[in-house]
Amino acid sequence: MKINSELEQQAIKTIRFLSADGVQTANSGHPGLPMGTATMAYTIWTKHLKHNPKNPNWVNRDRFILSGGHGSMLLYSLLYLTGYDLPLDQLKNFRQLGSITPGHPEVGVTPGVETTTGPLGQGFANGVGFGIAEAHLAAKYNLPGLEKLVDHYVYAIVTDGDLMEGVASEAASLAGHLKLGKLIYLYDDNRITIDGSTDLAFTEDRAMRFKAYGWHVIQVDDGNDVEKIDQAIMDAKNDDRPSLIICRTKIGYGLPTMENTADAHGKPPGEVELSAAKNNAGWPVEPKFFVPDEVLQFYRKAIEVGEKQEAIWNEILEQHKKENPEKTSEFLRRMSGLLPDDWQVDLPVFKADPKGMGSRVASGKMINALAIKLPELVGGSADLTPSNNTWIDGESDFQSDNPGGRYLHFGVREHAMGAILNGIALHKGYIPYGASFLVFTDYVRPSIRLSALSHIPVKWIFTHDSIGVGEDGPTHQPVEHLASLRAIPGLVDLRPADANEVAVAWKVAIQINNKPVLMALSRQNLPTLDRQYFNSAEGLTRGAYVLKDYGSEKPDLILIASGSEIALVLKAAEALVEKGKNVRVVSMPSWYLFEQQDQNYKDSVLLPDVRKRISVEAGSGFGWERWVGDSGKIIGLNRFGESGKFEEIYPHLGFSVENIVKIALEISD
């Protein structure tokens, strides 16, 4: 072990014991990672990380990700020590209700936290998104002959658990292919998990695996050797590939009986064990959360250094403004999250057409129209570009030799796509979208959940949204998916009924900047409704709206549907009118948006005294009872589909005009 000075030793011990005191005081948490990786973190934060604690949002800062979010006290200690707006009292309130030091780091809660980590592998993959964002912005906005406007690294501490999770494998594979040389990940190779030694289930050669991915792999045989870690990071900076620095560490370093054991992972050390560790290290047992004055002064130099770094960058920014004011202004607008004033000008308006088009096709037209006005709109598909209609005409794809490309080929990697998109959005400067089939949200759900939890405005595009995929059969026919996605708090669901609802859906999605939006789109053609006869598609902005009232009197019943089933209920309404019924048809493309409306509006759409209601949606009926009530009926699916032509599958499974009319007459007579 090589540490250069007494001050350096004290600085590392401070991280170690601040973290352990936080866990012990809370009597909850994970001491092993912070104590084992303190030297790695110290080296990154004091010798390499470019940041300004007084401006955590400085756009050209390096990003630091603690992918093993269970070790959150490590990050909180670093943020406090270097001068972020995180008082020591918050470390003392670790994991307590109302604190800004939650059990796992949450972006938007704690200043300086770049992304929400905890579910293992997600932070690893978020970092790939950060790396893509940096490379693309650099290609677009760095001007020849000037110092770089965009030039920052992504540092991460990753764990055995991260490397085991499939999402990290997918993301690492793509990062290697793209040669994201600004990724520098330090691997906490302590070889211990909750169950015990990694030999129980994780014996592959990790170095060879990452070399096969195309990563630059460096071995550091002592994770407490500052000089070797420092040199490894410098070597990583000189390579054009992403780097994995494998640091051999000991979990719970310094704990007399728990070091290098599974107990150190997630068990508070106990007063006796922690006191013994402090005594052995020559550290005062009391007071807890002890920070030597000279150590705090040392770490707080980060404020002065960071302010100077940002000031230098501001000079570079001024040079860019003079050289190309239009391009630099666009860069600053993008990083601020503001939309251009004219972004809604000349967007498509679709003519009435009984044949219509698939809502995925209308979405593709909107993407291309929006892309002209919004250079920050970037995205891609998990190897389903022609099916998802997500390509941007006239653009190229992002590759290692074309970092200015705008379209992302994720390959068949839905897990990684989701987490990478979250990273791109968190980086700022982008409105990212990603696409697959709705049934494969099962592979993206962890990232969708985190985008909702963290208020990340990714635009999720999922096509082939129902049994309308027909011949593909039940493996590709989503049944329970919309119901389960609507259960995610803060996720805006949009299932538009025709091309003009798609257009409005996209306008809504672009304007939402604090939560994710999910569009469920059809493969099959949907009639484009004549809006001179039906109410405006702008009603989508309120989640649900009256599409049309059939009959001159108060409705006898209300038919409610979304997406492709709207065309079906409109035909059913016409048939019911012929049978003497007054019918209201309600388009409900978004439960989330409708729930945000005031009660007066809700009552104006779903008339409280009209108890006879029928919902029609080609998926699970779970949840529709809140809209149809006790006297209503739900026409949905409580089974998986079948393979066949969608025109035959729909009536076979109860989605026909005849069945809707039959049920309507049963409940209204």
Description:
The protein is an alpha/beta fold and 669 residues long. It has 3 domains: 6-305, Thiamin diphosphate (ThDP)-binding fold, Pyr/PP domains (Rossmann fold); 353-528, Thiamin diphosphate (ThDP)-binding fold, Pyr/PP domains (Rossmann fold, 3-Layer(aba) Sandwich), CATH 3.40.50.970; 541-668, Rossmann fold. The chain is 42% helix and 15% strand. It is built from 25 helices and 20 strands. The protein has a 6-stranded parallel sheet, sandwiched between helices. Strands 1-2-3-7-6 form a 5-stranded parallel sheet, with helices on both faces. α2 packs across α9. The longest helix has 31 residues, at 293-323. It is elongated.
Structure characteristics:
single chain; 669 residues; alpha/beta; Rossmann fold; 6-stranded parallel beta sheet; 5-stranded parallel beta sheet; 25 helices; 20 strands; 42% helix
The helix/strand class is: alpha/beta
How many structural domains does the protein architecture include? Answer: 3
Please mark out the parts with pLDDT under 50 across 5 or more consecutive residues, or reply none.
Answer: none
What is the CATH topology assignment of the largest domain? Answer: Rossmann fold
What is the strand tally? 20
Largest sheet: 6 strands, parallel
Head-to-tail CA distance between termini: 85 Å
What is the CATH class designation of the largest domain? Alpha Beta
Q: CATH homologous superfamily of the largest domain?
A: Thiamin diphosphate (ThDP)-binding fold, Pyr/PP domains
Number of helices: 25
Helix content: 40-55%
The spatial strand order of the largest sheet comes to 10-9-11-12-14-13
CATH architectural name of the largest domain: 3-Layer(aba) Sandwich
Q: Average the pLDDT over all residues and give the rounded result.
A: 97
What's the gyration radius in Å? Answer: 28 Å
